[in-house]
Write the structure tokens for this entry.
Amino acid sequence: MLESRLLSRINRKQARVGILGMGYVGLPLAKSFCSVGMPTIGFDIDPRKIKMLKAGKSYIKHIPNGAVSAMRSS
Ligand SMILES: NC(=O)c1ccc[n+]([C@@H]2O[C@H](COP(=O)([O-])OP(=O)(O)OC[C@H]3O[C@@H](n4cnc5c(N)ncnc54)[C@H](O)[C@@H]3O)[C@@H](O)[C@H]2O)c1
């Protein structure tokens, strides 16, 4: 069944998480998923945010640049 297959993939950390909007909610959420080893993809339409994330930089005060770099390499 679909639910049990999805649950199994989540438990094995093989399910891919997609987050729409990398703002005050999305970026910390992405950080949380990355910190437990879930493959995570963030989407945003703001070119400034995309550019900063690609450069390993944060635009949210309580998330340091190093956390963004770690997320990119996880
Ligand atoms: N921040 C909070 O404390 C809070 C609390 C409750 C609910 N919410 C809700 O959560 C949502 C996100 O809040 P936030 O504070 O992170 O906002 P935010 O403005 O910080 O981030 C939203 C992000 O979504 C991006 N975006 C907009 N349209 C998009 C699209 N079509 N595709 C991809 N990305 C897109 C924006 O560029 C922006 O980076 C909002 O609906 C808000 O009302 C936020």
Residues 2-11 form the longest helix (10 residues). The chain has a mean pLDDT of 95.
